[in-house]
C-alpha cells in the first residue's frame, strides 16, 4: 500500500470516528418539555454521568420524572447553579384536600446515589395518634424534656399555623411538623398519622446580597452533587 492510499485510509477512519461522536452527541437530548437537561443528568442511554443514569425519565408527552425506590415523581424544576431538583408527590396532602386525607406513601431515595433530601424541606403530618406520636409544642416541650425533643412532632409549627396558599384549609384536623431522619422514621409516622405533605423553603432574591428571604412552597427539594468525572 503506497503512502497516498494509507493517507486516504487514515482520513476515512478519522472521518468515521468524528461522525460517530457527533451522532452519539446528537442522541443526548438537552431538554424535556421546558426543563433543561445538563450534566450530570441524561435522559437517553449513554448520556450524562454514570452515577445518575436512568434516574430521570422523559415521557412521550414531554413530562420529566424522577425515579426512586418509592415511585416516579413529577419534576417541577432543576437548578444547576444551586444543585437541586424540585419534585412533587401527587399522593401527598394538598390544599384541595382540606380535612379529607387520601392514602399516601413515604417518599424515599436510593441511599447509594448522590441524591440527598434537602434540609430546606419541612414535613407536616396530620391527625397523628397521640398514643404513638409525641405531639407537643416546641420549644416548651424541648425545654422540659430535652432528651425527647428530636422525636417530638411540633404542634406549634409556624407552617401548621400558616399553611402555604391555604391558611384555613384545616378546620377539624390536627397538624404537627417533624423532620424524619430516615425513610423508616417516615414509614412509622405514616402508620400513625392520616397523611403528610412536604414544604420546601424557596429563596427569593440573591443569597449574596442582603436582604433576602425565603418563602414556603409545596414540594420536595432533592439536592445532588456534580461528580468530578470526564464527560
Keywords:
single chain, 231 residues, alpha+beta, six-stranded antiparallel beta sheet, four-stranded antiparallel beta sheet
Short recap of the structure:
It is found in: Membrane. By secondary structure, the chain is α+β, with helices and mostly antiparallel strands.
Task: Write the topology of this structure.
Blueprint: H1 3-26, E1 31-32, E2 35-36, E3 56-58, E4 64-68, E5 71-79, E6 84-87, E7 115-117, E8 121-126, E9 134-136, H2 140-144, E10 152-154, H3 158-161, E11 175-177, H4 183-192, E12 195-204, E13 213-218, E14 220-224
Parallel strand pairs: 9-10
Antiparallel strand pairs: 1-2, 3-4, 4-5, 5-6, 6-14, 7-14, 8-11, 8-12, 12-13
> Strand-residue fraction?
25-35%
Give the overall average pLDDT.
86
Q: Describe the global form.
A: elongated
Could you spell the SSE succession in H and E letters?
HEEEEEEEEEHEHEHEEE
* Quaternary form: single chain
- Unreliable spans are 7-11, 13-24
Helix content: 10-25%
Given the structure, what is the number of helices? 4
Derived structural class: alpha+beta
Count the beta strands: 14
Largest beta sheet, briefly?
A: 6 strands, antiparallel
Query: What strand order characterises the main sheet?
Result: 3-4-5-6-14-7
- Terminal Cα separation, in Å? 38 Å
Number of domains: 1
Radius of gyration: 24 Å
Amino acid at each position: 500500500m503506497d503512502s497516498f492510499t494509507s493517507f486516504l485510509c487514515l482520513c476515512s477512519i478519522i472521518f468515521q470516528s468524528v461522525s460517530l461522536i457527533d451522532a452519539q452527541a446528537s442522541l443526548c437530548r438537552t431538554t424535556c418539555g421546558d426543563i433543561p437537561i445538563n450534566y450530570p443528568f441524561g435522559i437517553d442511554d449513554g448520556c450524562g454521568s454514570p452515577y445518575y443514569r436512568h434516574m430521570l425519565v422523559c415521557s412521550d408527552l414531554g413530562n420529566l420524572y424522577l425515579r426512586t425506590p418509592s415511585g416516579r415523581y413529577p419534576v417541577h424544576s432543576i437548578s444547576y447553579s444551586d444543585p437541586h431538583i424540585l419534585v412533587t408527590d401527587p399522593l401527598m396532602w394538598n390544599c384541595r384536600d382540606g380535612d379529607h386525607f387520601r392514602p399516601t406513601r413515604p417518599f424515599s431515595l436510593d441511599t447509594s446515589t448522590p441524591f440527598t433530601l434537602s434540609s430546606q424541606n419541612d414535613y407536616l403530618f396530620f391527625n397523628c395518634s397521640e398514643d404513638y406520636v409525641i405531639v407537643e409544642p416546641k420549644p416548651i416541650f424541648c425545654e422540659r424534656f430535652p432528651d425527647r425533643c428530636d422525636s417530638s412532632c411540633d404542634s406549634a409549627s409556624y407552617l401548621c399555623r400558616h399553611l402555604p396558599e391555604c391558611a384555613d384549609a384545616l378546620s377539624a384536623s390536627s397538624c404537627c411538623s417533624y423532620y424524619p431522619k430516615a425513610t423508616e422514621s417516615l414509614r412509622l409516622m405514616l402508620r400513625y398519622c392520616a397523611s403528610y405533605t412536604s414544604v420546601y423553603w424557596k429563596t427569593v432574591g440573591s443569597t449574596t446580597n442582603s436582604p433576602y428571604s425565603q418563602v414556603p412552597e409545596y414540594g420536595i427539594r432533592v439536592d445532588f452533587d456534580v461528580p468530578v468525572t470526564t464527560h
